[in-house]
Records
---
Amino acid sequence: MADWYDENFHDKSRFGVKYTSVLFQGRSEFQEITVLETETFGRVLVLDKVFMTSEFDEHFYHEMITHPVLTTAPSIERVLVIGGGDGGTVREVLTYPEVQSVTMVEIDRQVVEVSKRYLSTIGTAWDDPRLQVIFADGIDYAKKAEVEPYDVILLDGCDPVGPAVGLFTESFYRGCARLLKERGVFGLQSESAVFQRDILAQIGQTLAAIFPKVYPYFGPVPIYASGSWSWLYATREVDPLAVNGERAARQEKRCKYYNADIHRAAFVVPNALRKLFDNGRVKSPA
Amino acid sequence: MADWYDENFHDKSRFGVKYTSVLFQGRSEFQEITVLETETFGRVLVLDKVFMTSEFDEHFYHEMITHPVLTTAPSIERVLVIGGGDGGTVREVLTYPEVQSVTMVEIDRQVVEVSKRYLSTIGTAWDDPRLQVIFADGIDYAKKAEVEPYDVILLDGCDPVGPAVGLFTESFYRGCARLLKERGVFGLQSESAVFQRDILAQIGQTLAAIFPKVYPYFGPVPIYASGSWSWLYATREVDPLAVNGERAARQEKRCKYYNADIHRAAFVVPNALRKLFDNGRVKSPA
């Protein structure tokens, strides 16, 4: 018996999928976790009634949060992923043989457990010996962890509501900058560039107070509000368009969305957003 | 009293907007016409329960069906628009001072009348003396009209269901080719590249039997299924990336989405679609 499951976006628009069964529903210490079985999107992960990922369209998001950063960061030996409990981002990161260790800091152990059980097509790299999963608050980790700095930090977090609000603050970003090597790159999702332009701008501004160079980039994510998403690429000195040809060529053999041309196209800023950015870069705060 | 209006996409997914009132609902000779008032999308035009356009997001679609063609076609004096009854496409076309005449062939007079009355922010060029509106079947027109050939033909039609099926046939495209100057360009919408890849491929193949060069291009349209859309650029010899700098510069002063960099980015083919296309071009039929 099929029925609709809708994500209600601020009570203004909604996106729904027809689901055939609820594979899991439960409440962790942090959030409500739901896994739906659908015909079109395959299995869908929902946290607090917001679609997080689906088997059908997860490649858009996971490839785009990963490869624009991993093909341009000068070194990619040590990678930190904050959030990303479904396992899709660390899977993409671990496709690079140059990556020697990935630390994933996820606050919600149950999201990982549910994902391992129900979303095994997404999290295919849990057993990679280079991966270490730490169940902890990413905000605390960024501020306090005494570890060697990372080449790359990817923030694969939720929308800025509830417990995830702290993931959008300057003090958290300063923690990330603290953990990042001088020539490192910090990449993060920054919401819909159509519906949440103000949030994108605000995150960009906050980052630009810390990193000399912050660039937005864009791509489709059908299951997210508006179907278009944005990410930010923050760095002290790396050029986000200087794609490592060898790394990109390897990804082009396996990716569904990403290739080196898509990489460059993703950094093009739509006309109405240009005033937020200066030559494709977030304007530094006055 | 607000309620939801959903577009049900093949009973697999749906997209809904919260509407505050139904401004118009009626049945023409061809289809059911609805205009909703919404908070987020402004006024929304719905034909046969499928979202056609909205005040909030219409610029994505209308800019992208128009400017990639109009900034690259060598001559743009005579333009034919088939469909496009809301008036958004002819509005964009008429922003070019080089355009001397636009013929719009729309099958459904009532769509134009309803759009003039309720969507006046979209159709702002109805009174332009260069515009001639003909209420007729675009298929007949393409096959039989005895007119001077056009520099540009834009097909701004519905999905390939019901009366619009004929807009996706080889015989119709041959009619368009007949009406197109040797160095002309034919542009058309070609459905979602995420959900309807097979239709995009099929339209591309059909066109490639007639036009030596057929290129897909892509962009966001939040109100359409999947939020991502595709268009096809069909021509005998024109280079779709040879943007006329002067024309593009003028558009960059007024467009919300389009600019010359977006133009080039739009023609980049996502990795999984590359096998459908050869170096960004539809492969000619065997």
---
Amino acid sequence: MRSDVETLNSSLEVMRGEVNQALHDLIQSEVELGAGEVALEAGRVLNAGGKRLRPILFLLAYQVAGGTKQDDVMPLALAFELIHTATLVHDDINDEAKQRRGIPTIHAQAGQAKAVIAGDWLFVQGFGLGGRYSEQIVSVIARCCANIAVSEFDQLDHVLNLATSPEDYLSIVKGKTAGPFASGCYAAGLVAGLEDEQAKALERFGMELGIAFQLVDDILDLRGDERMGKPRGADVYEGKMTLPLIHALTLSHGTHRQRLSDLIESFSDEDFDELMSLLERSSSMEYAEILVRTHLERAQAELNNFPDSQAKEMMQLITNIVKDRHA
Amino acid sequence: MRSDVETLNSSLEVMRGEVNQALHDLIQSEVELGAGEVALEAGRVLNAGGKRLRPILFLLAYQVAGGTKQDDVMPLALAFELIHTATLVHDDINDEAKQRRGIPTIHAQAGQAKAVIAGDWLFVQGFGLGGRYSEQIVSVIARCCANIAVSEFDQLDHVLNLATSPEDYLSIVKGKTAGPFASGCYAAGLVAGLEDEQAKALERFGMELGIAFQLVDDILDLRGDERMGKPRGADVYEGKMTLPLIHALTLSHGTHRQRLSDLIESFSDEDFDELMSLLERSSSMEYAEILVRTHLERAQAELNNFPDSQAKEMMQLITNIVKDRHA
């Protein structure tokens, strides 16, 4: 008795609406408590949309784990979304980004000082919600956030480092992008009352999905996708060593490698075609796509540890959505 | 049977040592867990000293409230110190400060991007420790931190605002400086098992002490004090409306007020004597000193709600230390 995709999609829409409503209410209540401008600035970015992939996944992971009271897991899901948004606000300062989710960044709108503080405020709100849970779950959240910071440091040290290895890359991605997916799914399983070993299957699901998600981001940065809300090639301009670049640098030799290095080190828009054709020579985009499929298959395999349910089908649908972002 | 000051001072030294050791161990254990550079950078500022006034006060408030197991309250005390240091790291970015606690700021040493992240990491560590407590205490910590952010926004909006009123000032100080003193004392009382009403007396103690603490800071900024670890007049240069300036602007008229406004709006070192003599005319330094005494007396009065103990005497000693900073 499998649900059709339309039913699943409309269930996803309902959940997104619930998450959006809860986030909206949270900002509203903080404004009423006197948080004023900082809540409004932070709320502007928080409520500007975003796919809500993380909180929806955590609500679903809770259901897949047998949880039935959404109110019990909603604060956890929101906590991760708030913390995620906090890191975006702080990233945007460091990247000097002008736009996020189609609107001006806090940095661009209200200046750096307020952007730092608004990010802190979002962190605080996230931890306030996360702190309602057991010591074990609080420690999962804290460990996850600490790893984000560690990986961001690591990533900064690898900017324009042409010797960045696939292992370096994976370690950064696991900490910064995939870690929060993994920790949120794991914690949601614990909230539902799973034994640690079962919850670990959800953690692995999140990790694999998160790695795939980052790889798709890397691909879209090069291919371009107006849905990203950031200009094509932003990663290359920032000197971020994405997987296609790392792969191409590893496989290329002689003049091709030299040219590739030169392009990466001083990139400009007119170099795009040449960059893409160098990536083509080493099949680096194709390689990244294969990795996306591999990680998504592993993610889906982890779901086999759980009984069939609509929530499980929706999690499968989300893995397909991640894949199809670059179709 | 009152202890002599020497005994109290050496007990304070012991507590400071315990706090320092615990902070050092925390960084060490994070480094061993793989936090590497971010823990080292954050730890460099965290372990560079500081009086540890906040954590020591919270340990003492716990004892005054009848608590006997220091291990139960130490994570709370450390949480507030970590969060305090996080706000300093982020403040230093926004103030472009070069030095903190006598060593280069993270901002100056490792750049802005890493300073933002290292501050986030300190927040996360603080919340990780604070999140071990009951939902009520977590919510006290989260509310306190949210208020810090709200007040920092407010303070930014009042930079060089010569119409800043004493009420505006007090509201900012209560959120940013005194609030954490109050929340830490209050939460420590709750950890010790106090009824809410009794714990509120500790909260009021912390609030009064914290206001006095900020007023002394304001005075020292103008008088100069090498123990501050920041140059004399830093607040004036940053356009921060400290109480002596607000008081003088309120009381001055005509050409004196005009000159005072001009000095504040474009301050330089050679203006110091003239600024001080204008503050003298309105007795603004004296006024701030009287307020310090008033708030410290109120703080001490709150301690009368608790039975005599060495911990209570040490809290009284700390109120004297705050007073004598500007002696």
